[in-house]
Amino acid sequence: MRTDTRGGWGTTVADHATREAPAGASADQLERYRVELTGYCYRMLGAADAEDAVQEAMLRAWRGMDRFEGRAQLRSWLYRIATNVCLDMLESRKRRAMPVDLGPAGAPELANLSPRPDAEWIQPMPDALVVPDGDPADVAVARETVRVAFVAALQHLPPRQRACLILCEVLRWSAQEAAELLETSVASVNSALQRARATLAGRGLDRDAAGASPAGADPALLERYVAAFEGYDIDALTELIHEDAVQSMPPFALWLSGREDMFTWWWGPGIACRGSRVLPAGTANGLPAFAQYKPAESGDGYEPWALQLVRVEDGAIAELTFFLDVQALFPVFGMPARLDADGNPA
Q1: Residue 176: CB partners within 8 Å, gap ≥ 6?
Q2: Do 87 and 201 belong together in one domain?
C-alpha cells in the first residue's frame, strides 16, 4: 500500500496538479469524492490497495478534467474510471477470503495453526477511509456494506456482477446509469443483478440483510470486554461472549467455533496473550476496532500483536477477528508501534 496518498492529495497527484492543471479544474473537485470512491473500490477489491486504485483513477481523471462540466457528470466519470481500474486489477488476482470461507472450523490445537500463503485475505479498513459523511441512513448502509462478511461474499461474484451489485444495490444507481457506466445494456445489468443476488442468497447474505443495522455495540459492554480481556477474566468473558461465538486469526486459516473452543485456545496455544493491553482503534468495516499489544518477550513494555474487530449481536459478542498483520495495519489506524511498561506509547 502506498503511504504517500493516505488522507489527502498524494504527492504524485500534487505534481500533476502543478505541472498539468487543465483550465478551470480544481484538485478539490476530485478530492471530495475520495472517501466514497475508496469505499467502492474496497468493496470491489476487498483490500487496502483500494486506495491505490482510487489514486490511479484520480490521476486519470485529473488529466482529463477539462472535459467535465457539472458535479453529476464528474462523479459518474470518476466511477467509470475507478471501475475500469478495479476490473484490470482483478484480472490477475485470486479471490480474497476470510478463514470461514476456506473450510470448517478446526480444533483449538497449535498443530492446526498453519498460514495459507496461497490465500489472499480480506483486509480491514478504517471507516473514516471508506464511509463518507452524509445522511445518517446512508452512512448506516455504507457501514453495513463494508462489513467483512459482506465484502468477503462479494468476492464470490465475477467482477462485472460485483460492480453491478455494488452500483445498484449499495449505491442505488439505476440499471440505466449502471449500464451507461459499464458500457452495456440495461438487460445485461438486470441479468447480472439477478445472478449476483442469487449467489449472495446462496451464501446466506442479501442486500437487505447487509443493510439492516443489527443491535449496536453498547460502549459499556465494550469497556467490560477490554477490562476482561486485559485481566484474562474467564468468568467476565463468559458473560460477555455468546456460547456459539466464532473467532478467526488471518493470515491463519484456522477458525474456532464456540466459546468453549475459543477459551481452550486462549488458555492453551494463545496463552501469550495473557496480560495484553488493548487500546481503542476507532471503527473498521462498521465494527468497533481495538489494537492489542502483547507483553514483550524481553519484559520491556508491550509489542503490537493484533487488530481486533468485535461484532456484537443481541447484547453479547458474536465474533472476534484478530488481524495479525500489524506492521501494515497499525499505521493505517494511527496506532503506536509499541507501548512502554505503563501502557503508554513508547
Answers
A1: 186
A2: yes
In order of 91, 183, 228, 278, the CA distances from 316 in angstroms are: 40, 46, 13, 18
Q: What is the domain extent for residue 232?
A: 219-332
**Does 86 lie in the same domain as 235?**
no
Asked if residue 321 and residue 182 are part of one domain, the reply reads no
Mean pLDDT, residues 19-27:
47
- Asked if residue 112 is part of any domain, the answer here is no
User: 53 and 125 share a domain?
Assistant: yes
C-beta of residue 159 within 8 angstroms of C-beta of residue 86: yes
**259: closest CA among 275, 289, 278, 238?**
238
CB 195 within 8 A of CB 202: no
Which region holds residue 178: left if phi is over 0, alpha if psi is between -120 and 50, else beta?
A: alpha
The answer on pLDDT for 317 being more than 70 is yes
Percent of the chain with pLDDT over 90: 69
